Amino acid sequence: MIRLDRVSKVYTRGARPALDRVSLEVERGEFLFLVGASGSGKSTFLRLVLREESATSGRVYVAGREITALSQWKVPSLRRQIGVVFQDFRLLPNKTVFDNVAFAQQVIGKPQHAIARDVPEVLELVKLAGKERRMPHELSGGEQQRVAIARAIVNRPAILLADEPTGNLDPTTSAGIMTLLERINRTGTTVVMATHDEVIVNQMRKRVVQLVDGEVVRDEASGAYEKVHIAEGEDPDRVRAGSDGDGEHGPTAEAAS
Ligand SMILES: Nc1ncnc2c1ncn2[C@@H]1O[C@H](COP(=O)(O)OP(=O)(O)OP(=O)(O)O)[C@@H](O)[C@H]1O
């Protein structure tokens, strides 16, 4: 569903790459956590999949298409296959819950009867039935994120990208959001979630890909989030190669396939 083939991204010439020769495949229907410290390249990964940024080298494939050199006019059709959720919800403050979700359908020209059918259905799924007429500021953070998720999935995208979706939420509310994302994943949607949240990652036991300085240092089919510490004076390449004695920390992409 998503494949990166030796992808590097350099934002500023001469600077360290934000992603450094990343090769990774995400199968249709998979749920993948992308973890790593701030600045490790998680958002860059998501932006490349969305074609908000282009790779400096290597190739990116999404839903069977090579998007590295996709012409600009084809980008909207790529994005229609991808729903996105952010840490800060990004709802339209002057629109109701219903209209925030409906807007995602209106911009792609969905007819009114489809909107009248789909929006209540998706609001039911995210457990917001009855709150259609509320404005975003009349909702809790968790409810606002549910609206954002409803908006992201209302057009039935093949892929859902979530960038720190629980970053502004308390643990209980976060758990509810994770239950919802898992349910969406079970309907066949491929989910890639970037997060710092070790508790969530460790509870879910999904595939975990960990980045350090733009490099994949771990890829485990049902992993935990173990922080990779690079101590002062330690050779970071030794850590990245996973040669720390127990042999458990190297990239294990094959284990997930
Ligand atoms: N538009 C940009 N121009 C220049 N450098 C950038 C740009 N976006 C990101 N970077 C750099 O690329 C690296 C990776 O950033 P990225 O945002 O992908 O990390 P992240 O893992 O998502 O971090 P966070 O968890 O803080 O969101 C960082 O060193 C960052 O400073």
Bound molecules: adenosine-5'-triphosphate
Number of helices: 9
What is the typical, i.e. mean, pLDDT?
89
**What ranges have pLDDT less than 50 throughout 5 or more consecutive residues?**
241-257
Cross-sheet strand order for the largest sheet: 6-7-8-3-9-10
Order of helices and strands: EEEHEEHEHHHEHEHEEHH
| Proportion in β-strands | 15-25%
Give me the CATH superfamily of the domain at 2-81 and 205-256: P-loop containing nucleotide triphosphate hydrolases
CATH-level-2 architecture of the domain at 2-81 and 205-256? 3-Layer(aba) Sandwich
Helix content: 25-40%
End-to-end separation in angstroms reads: 13 Å
**What gross morphology would you assign?**
globular
Biased composition (Basic and acidic residues): 227-251
Subcellular location: Cell membrane
Protein name: Cell division ATP-binding protein FtsE
Function: Part of the ABC transporter FtsEX involved in cellular division. Has ATPase activity.
